[in-house]
Write a structure and sequence with these properties.
Length: 313
């Protein structure tokens, strides 16, 4: 190594040593200055804002009385909770892009206001899941209610997980509630608390509207959660959500295959259509077993994704 190289290496090493000492030494002013700098950096880099409540809101065309201070506070709570639970809200944006195109025409077909698609978010976050109480599917029906409205629920088939059939049942239930109470807001509340529960409280408290009722915590928040999802999903930029079209989940086109016999093995069945067992179950979560007993010859319609959307070996 020549003399210039040695001098250059020495200078570099000295510079690194100086930077290390500078970075690790206590700043002038002691610990208090360090804390102040950290606080200033936090304030500059991260901010949480109070949200402006819209001047006017409605659910299914029915006005929300935002001039009532209790109503404003309850609306404020749900907007804050669901705006600042960013990961959950962003997932809902993604899922809505996939499932709203399925749900919206079904609600229209069955005569239900479009705003009820946000009720499905409040129930299940647009996932075919189940609650600790046993409610299941996108619309979270209990087993007894689902069977009462005509859904097949047994160890082989659970039509609460069939989005099209369950949406029809949700529509029938909501229309029954609407006919009973006279408005869609109470029908939405009754979806959570039951028609009997809402009717009991209306009679007991001598009022005729949801916003005048004193209810348990869950039902008291329920309609406001639906309203918050409507507001946030309708105005993503306003609430700080940024995404591209390619970030959202997509609806995968399918066609249906009629089955009116038993199926001994759904893994074999799936392969006949160029897919695997996992994909068959993803598109037909209402099939609860790896086989189907069908002694009665009932007709079932199984969804098969069109070719080209999955990489199947």
């Amino acid at each position: 190594m020549n003399m210039l190289s040695k001098i250059g290496l020495t200078a570099i090493l000295a510079g690194v040593a100086w930077l290390f000492i500078y970075a690790t030494q206590e700043p002038k002013g002691g610990l208090n200055s360090s804390a102040e700098q950290s606080t200033e950096k936090l304030l500059n880099d991260y901010n949480v804002y109070a949200l402006e409540i819209p001047e006017q809101m409605d659910f299914a065309g029915e006005e929300v009385p935002l001039n009532d201070p209790d109503v404003r506070e309850r609306m404020d709570r749900e907007l804050l909770v669901n705006t600042y639970w960013q990961s959950n809200a962003l997932l809902i944006f993604k899922r809505a892009n996939k499932y709203f195109p399925i749900i919206e025409p079904l609600l229209k077909k069955y005569g239900i206001p479009d705003d009820f698609k946000y009720l499905a978010i409040a129930e299940s976050a647009l996932e075919n899941n189940s609650s600790p109480a046993g409610a299941a599917g996108f619309w979270h029906f209990m087993k007894g209610t689902g069977q009462e409205y005509g859904l097949e629920i047994n160890e082989y088939v659970d039509e609460r997980y069939n989005l099209e059939l369950a949406t029809k049942v949700a529509a029938d239930y909501l229309k029954d509630s609407r006919n009973k109470f006279g408005n869609w807001t109470l029908a939405a509340a009754a979806y959570n608390a039951g028609n009997g529960g809402i009717n009991k409280q209306l009679t007991r408290q001598k009022v005729d509207g949801y916003y005048d009722l004193l209810l348990n915590s869950e039902t008291s928040r329920y309609v406001f959660r639906i309203l918050a999802f409507k507001e946030i999903l309708s105005n993503p930029k306003k609430y700080g959500f940024n995404f591209r079209e390619q970030d959202l989940y997509k609806t995968i086109p399918t066609y249906t295959v009629k089955v009116d016999t038993s199926v001994t093995n759904f893994a074999d069945f799936a392969q006949k259509f160029g897919i695997n067992y996992k994909i068959l179950k993803l598109h037909n979560p209402w099939l609860r077993e790896s086989y189907l007993k069908n002694a009665s010859g009932k007709e079932y319609f199984i969804e098969i994704p069109e070719k080209g959307y999955y990489n199947i070996p």
